[in-house]
Design a protein that fits this description.
By secondary structure, this protein is an alpha+beta fold. It folds into 2 domains: 3-176, no CATH class; 189-403, no CATH class. Helix content is 43%, strand content 20%. The chain has 12 helices and 16 strands. The chain has helices at residues 13-42, 51-56, 58-64, 66-69, 73-96, 213-216, 218-229, 240-274, 285-288, 309-322, 324-338, 384-403, and strands spanning 3-10, 113-116, 123-125, 135-139, 143-148, 156-165, 168-176, 189-194, 198-202, 207-209, 277-281, 295-296, 304-305, 341-345, 372-374, 381-383. The strands form 4 sheets. Strands 2-6-7-1-5-4-3 form a 7-stranded antiparallel sheet. Strands 10-9-8-11-14 form a 5-stranded mixed sheet, with helices on both faces. The protein has a two-stranded antiparallel sheet with strand order 12-13. Helix 1 crosses helix 5 and helix 8 (240-274) crosses helix 11 (324-338). The radius of gyration is 26 Å and the shape is globular. The relative contact order is 0.11.
Length: 404
């Protein structure tokens, strides 16, 4: 299996300055490579420049610019590959007819990750620390940085990345050949129905509350954002107060992100420990959170009819605050590590279908409210989320029978 391990770094003051300089120089390299591609395309010859040509220039760049020469050659190649992937994704979206999203120049505050493609090439993970309780990672141009390693690393370290999040620094180890750790069989199979009022409801009727971390932090975030907006949008030099206001907003968002991750990991672990098979709906998150298309008023040029955008925006915020996509990804990863099975089923009409085997009536009238399900054919009444979870379980059972 492939797994990533993320640890907090404890750099000294000088090491932190070196880390910031490393990010800034890689950001400069990324922007220069992007500018070169733009200039080549704007030239009358319409020259195309790819990763190979730009990577071949690195040796000359390092000889000319001593700031670039102090960093790992492989990490700079990884930065150029990052730009190449951005262009590949851009052309793929153009070909598919989607919104293109041309690669943009990166500001120093928006370039936060440097990747080292191979352990031992410009970086070294100290797998056998000299001190039994202290671990270090060595980075070219920075030195040995102390790592807060809160769990053991399993498998073989393949790539190492250094990431900045606010004022914190992290090292991310991408490992291969990570062994599975199967849990004892429980003989239980369960279906879950994701929601916004309740985070999820399972087919046994148990409900997991939705903590709504972003909503709980909304007032404090709004106040911090209003304070940040009092500063000019574009200035040549940000003041100390401006930087402090920006850090405040970033710190609050980081806290919400950590709370959501902690909640998702714990909820997924509970399901994995208690059940051998977990079934859930196959959700199209991009479609579910899409903004409604405008409705032009044919009788009045330049005017538009109400399209429910305000109500949909509130629903979108609730869905994104719950973080269903992230939770289901964590659930799948944990299931693979524990030898469990996760099944995706068709999400259509799971909350509109009567779960009684002798009925099975499907109608939008069966669910007139968010919480209540009442079958118009047989009169069966239950919680709508519970009904959805039961139908998910039934469809998973059919999928298991078909596979057998």
């Amino acid at each position: 299996m492939h797994r990533s391990f993320k640890f907090l770094l404890r750099p000294t003051t000088h090491q932190e300055q070196a880390l910031r300089a490393m990010l800034a120089d890689h950001c400069t390299l990324y922007n220069a490579a992007l500018q070169e591609r733009r200039d080549a395309y704007c030239h009358p010859s319409k020259t195309t420049i790819r990763y190979g040509e730009q990577s071949a220039q690195l040796k000359e760049i390092r000889a000319f610019d001593l700031d670039q020469a102090r960093w790992s050659f492989s990490s700079q190649q990884a930065t150029l590959r990052r730009l190449d992937k951005a262009f590949a994704a851009f052309f793929r979206r153009v070909k598919a007819g989607d919104k293109p999203g041309y690669p943009r120049f990166k500001g120093v505050g928006h370039f936060d990750t440097v990747e080292f493609p191979k352990d031992g090439d410009g970086c070294r993970w100290d797998s056998q620390p000299h001190h039994p309780t202290v671990t270090y990672v060595r980075l070219q141009g920075v030195g040995h940085i102390r790592v807060h390693q809160h769990r053991p690393v399993k498998g073989r370290v393949k790539t190492i990345s250094v990431k900045r999040e606010g004022r914190r620094w992290y090292v991310i180890l991408a490992c291969v050949d990570v062994p599975a750790e199967p849990l004892p069989k429980t003989g239980s199979i369960v279906g879950i129905d994701m929601g916004t009022v309740r985070f999820f409801t399972d087919s046994n009727g148990e409900q997991k509350e939705n903590p709504r971390f972003l909503e709980a932090m909304a007032e404090e975030l709004a106040a911090a954002q209003r304070h940040l907006d009092t500063f000019p949008k574009r200035t040549k030099r940000r003041t100390k107060k401006h930087r402090a206001a920006a850090r405040k907003v970033a710190k609050l968002h980081a806290k919400v992100r950590r709370q959501r991750l902690d909640h998702h990991y714990k909820a997924a672990l509970e399901l994995i420990r208690d059940h051998d098979v977990i079934a859930h709906e196959k959700l199209n998150m991009a479609g579910m959170t899409k903004t409604p298309a405008p409705k032009p008023d044919t009788g009045n040029a330049g005017a538009f009819l109400p399209n429910g955008a305000s109500a949909k925006a509130g629903l979108n915020r609730s869905i994104l605050d719950a973080g269903w996509g992230l939770f289901l990804q964590i659930l799948a990863n944990k299931a693979e590590s524990a030898g469990r099975r996760v099944i995706e089923v068709d999400a259509r009409n799971t909350s509109r279908t009567c779960p009684r085997p002798q009925c099975g009536h499907v109608s939008a009238e069966n669910r007139k409210t968010q919480a209540e399900f009442r079958c118009t054919a047989c009169g069966f009444t239950a919680n709508a989320d519970h009904v959805g979870a039961i139908n998910v379980l039934n469809r998973a059972g059919l999928a298991l029978c078909a596979a057998a």
